[in-house]
Amino acid sequence: MASSALQHLVLVHSEHDYFVTEMSRIAADMKSSWSPELTVKKYRALLELIPQAEVPEAPRERLLYLRDFFFNHRGFSTLASKPTLDKCLLPYTLLSRSGPPEVLLLLFLSLATNLNLQIEVVQGPSQWLIKLLDAGKSTLFEFNATFRELSKADLVDMVNAGCDFTQPANSKILLTNYLYMLKTQSLRERSLIQFYKLQSHLIHHQPFALQHLVDRARAAYAIGDLVRAAEDIGQYMTFRSEKVTNNRYTKLLRKMKDRHF
Question: Global pTM?
Fold first, then answer.
């Protein structure tokens, strides 16, 4: 779990840098050598490379300017090699300029917010889409190096496929989506300690998702933290039902014990 030092990390532009702050904390929890302060400093250095005097006034041109800066000038791209948990963390992306789409998206959004761009993120059929809001009008772009603007025909096809462009993903959804990606990767690598830590972050951001308590209890049991496992299962049972019997409690503990990662 995050240390008290990480919990009290304060940034000058905390509202603008929400994603960077949270991803820095997560990275430091996964790998203690990655100081959150240094990660944030690296991000601020990237932001300062954008020549403010050259940034266009019009929102559309400003967004495309940021696209060129991010993908072309600075050369950020998706991972060319097989992803690992380390490569899915923000410090690696800032150093190597490559990372999974989830990290690139959150990093791009942080830069866009600092440039006062009013944008939203919506889920497309196979990827996230950037929705630019300007004077009551909206324009959608694919989030990748091409940044292709979607035509009316594209939008009709996506709506027919079930996409809802009226429901943007808020910051909590985007961050928890990133945490789920890390959780999946930790399971692939069978890293139970990292899985345990990620469950703690998910509980922080989704406190009413009771399955997170069970998953953290399983991880705690697997790494030998029996006290935490018992506390999480007890809390899960308390929220689940006031009429849970000791028999059900025992069965759940046995199920947790027998289940393999």
Answer: 0.83
